[in-house]
Each structure stands twice: as C-alpha cells, then as structure tokens.
Amino acid sequence: DIQMTQSPTSLSASVGDRITITCRASQSISSYLNWYQQKPGKVPKLLIYTASSLQSGVPPRFSGSGSGTDFTLTISGLQPEDFATYYCQQSYSTPLTFGGGTKVEIK
Amino acid sequence: QLQLQESGPGLVKPSETLSLTCTVSGGSISSSNYYWDWIRQSPGKGLEWIGSVYYSGSTDYNPSLKSRVTISVDTSKNHFSLKLSSVTAADTAVYYCARRDCGGGTCYSSRGWFDPWGQGALVTVSS
Q1: What digits encode the pLDDT tens for the residues B16-51?
Q2: Would you call A54 an interface residue with chain B, using a CB distance cutoff of 8 Å?
Q3: Where are the alpha helices (DSSP H) in B23-69?
Q4: B106 CB burial (10 A radius; 0-12, 13-18, 19+)
Q5: Does A103 lie at the interface with B, CB-CB under 8 angstroms?
Q6: What confidence tens digit (pLDDT) does each residue in B82-115 have?
Q7: B98 vs B55: CA distance, rounded Å
Q8: How far does B89 lie from chain A, in Å, by closest CA?
Q9: CB neighbours (10 Å) of residue A56?
Q10: What is the residue-wise DSSP string for B90-107?
C-alpha cells in the first residue's frame, strides 16, 4: 500500500494568512494526488485533482503543486470558511489511500 | 446535478452483515467514465477506502477488508451496494458512497477523484 503522510497534523492561522500543507507519498505517484476539505459533521469536498487542477467552483485562493512523492496545498488569503480539515488522497494504485488529515484552526 | 444517497440500517449487531445501498440520481450509473466507490470514516478518524465497482460489475477491494466485502451494481435501479460481513465494533463508522471521476480517456481502476459524495450513513455495530 502507498502511505500518505501529511504535515503538519494541525496548524493555527489567522484570517488573511497564507498557509501550506504538505503531503508525502511513500513512493512515486506521478501527479495522481487529490485534495479534499472536510468541515465538522460535513461531507468531504473535492478541492484539487491531479495535483494542481482546481475543481470547478473552488475559489482560486486554493492551489496545489507537486509530483512524484511531494505535494503541497496552499491557501492564499485564509478565509473564515476555510477552517477545516484537509486530506490528500492518491489515485496511483489501489488500495486508494488518504493522508491522515491536517486540521486548520483559528489562531 | 448528480446526487448520491446512502440507505440502510444504522445499527448492526456484532458478527452480522452490514448492508448499504447508494442510489444515484440526476445521472446514469452506466457510464464508462466513472467508478462507484465506498469510503468510511470512523468517529474522529481519517478516511478509509473500502472498494469500488464499475458499471460492468468489475470490482476492486481494499485488501484489509477484502475477505469480508462485497460491492455490487444494479444498473436497472441505478444503484450500487455494499455488504460487509462479520462486523465488529471496529466497523462502526460513517459510510460514504462516492463517484470516482476518471476525467475522460481510459478509466483505469485506480484513477480519478471522488466527486460527488453521498451525505454519509452512520452505522453503529453494537448488540
């Protein structure tokens, strides 16, 4: 199985901050990496697919980059509605696996 | 737009079989561009992929659950189903169904991204 490791596991930030979340795969996954946002009690929401493609309707302050084993999700100008948990997920090979999540909290 | 809705018992006894159905509305399940997946999330925990089914009926399962899982599709009813046998308390979770979009082209069994998701069904395993 491909292990997905996210860092940090949590972070505190202020509205307007620029934050970066990292996701590392245990082996190369090319660009087969997706990002999701989940708010408490809610369904995960797709943000970014194939490492850097912004899902329709997602604000452009969200961006993704990386390939191979190292990937980042960046939020430029954090908004109140962005406080949530973020997950990466690889679609290179089955079993499909998710990172452990990064919780973004209000400072 | 496409919507998915899970249905099934919210309480299952230990050693019994968990059964859930995901009904797809607003689109056809019989498309070569998509897989149909089950994902679960234990209380306070992360996300675990259970497995997937293609409209043709071909399946792929997480090896960690493979001996207990069956996923099937019924194209005439536009739904797909999950059965998980011999459940224990460790199987207590919110179970999500989701469409996996391959993005066009050849749809390999691992490719794509989950969108949309169903609302989720909390299944508790308890006597």
Answers
A1: 999 999 999 999 999 889 999 999 999 878 899 999
A2: no
A3: none
A4: exposed
A5: no
A6: 999 999 999 999 999 999 998 877 778 888 999 9
A7: 14
A8: 21
A9: 7
A10: GG-EEEEEEEEE--SS--
